[in-house]
Amino acid sequence: MNPIFVSCPGMCTAAGFNASASCAAMMAGISGVKEANLWDWESGSLINAARVELPQWWFGVPTLATLAASAIDESMKRARVADPEAVPVLLCIAEPSRPGRLDTIEADMFDELQARLGHALHPLSRLVALGQAGGVVALEHARAILADGSAPHCMVAGVDSYLDQTTLDVFMQRRRVMTPANSNGFIPGEASAAVLLSASENGPSLQVMGLGTGHETATIDSDEPLQGKGLEQVIRRALSDAGIEIYDTQYRMTDLNGEHYKFKESTLVQPRLLHRSHEALFDLWHPIEWLGEIGAAIVPCALGLQLYASTRDMAPGPTCLGFFGTDSGERGAYVARYSGGV
């Protein structure tokens, strides 16, 4: 594959208003989760959530645009981009089938985002509405943009929020949210994250070596037996694209969120990929533990965390396998290697 390099992360999460604060909190095990003004109708009590303490009270697309603009602007400034309008922004958002998804998000997001950034977006900017796996698809789009010379840089960003009572009522009816009466559920969260992509290395960066995308038919809402074939397929594709074996990776970055489904899927896939003992610890990192379920923001957040840990010699090794999945069945995986520089 044509090499692409990740640098200059930006974030706005419940753990911190920028990438450094958010990543430092995650590495220290400091959670942004606390009791929120969200109601569990079954137990009659408030639930825990990871809310970003924004200074305003509006909701909907304006809130998402404010979150996204914060991460994008931070990344642009860290990279000292002279002309932000020359950088295509691929913004990942919730998939269309997500309960409570904002009806006007496609129509309004870029207008709201441009108003907050204070500049127009590049004509190649687009929304990637594929939830958690959307970041990997966005990386594929970014690779194509950089390969054909359409732009010298590209930005992959994500923004999402589960902190809406109507949305959570649907998930709670399906017993998907962690509440006093249900431990097999996720903690709702919200966040934005962004990373800058380039065709050449420029300072501390990650090289995205391989990408894989695909689909799982046995979704969390399906009656079909889960075998993890979709996740296995995308991991194999990412490793093949990178030209390495799974034994050449030292740890994993995932969107495990506390639900049994994703843990089961990952557990089913691992023995089919590992035919001998993995010499490294093969640690499993899951940022959602500290940030709550952040949906479409997870891939740029994971890349940002990997870069932060690598530059401080806190990662188990240079090469990480990341894999992610959306409720509707989309799956994505990447292999990223730290290329040096502190």
Structural account:
The protein contains nine helices and twelve strands. The chain is α/β, with parallel strands linked by helices and 342 residues long. It has two domains: 195 residues, Peroxisomal Thiolase, Chain A, domain 1 (3-Layer(aba) Sandwich), CATH 3.40.47; 133 residues, Thiolase/Chalcone synthase (Peroxisomal Thiolase, Chain A, domain 1, 3-Layer(aba) Sandwich). The strands form two sheets. A ten-stranded mixed β-sheet has the order 5-4-6-7-1-8-12-11-9-10, sandwiched between helices. It has a two-stranded antiparallel sheet with strand order 2-3. β9, α7 and β10 form a beta-alpha-beta unit. The longest helix is centred in the first third of the chain and has 19 residues. The chain is globular.
Topology (elements, then pairings):
Elements: E1 4-12, H1 19-28, E2 34-40, E3 45-49, H2 61-79, E4 89-93, H3 105-117, E5 126-129, H4 134-147, E6 153-161, H5 165-173, E7 190-198, E8 206-215, H6 229-242, E9 251-254, H7 260-273, E10 283-285, H8 288-291, H9 298-311, E11 319-325, E12 330-338
Parallel strand pairs: 4-5, 4-6, 9-10, 9-11
Antiparallel strand pairs: 1-7, 1-8, 2-3, 6-7, 8-12, 11-12
Helix pairs in contact: 1-9, 2-3, 6-7
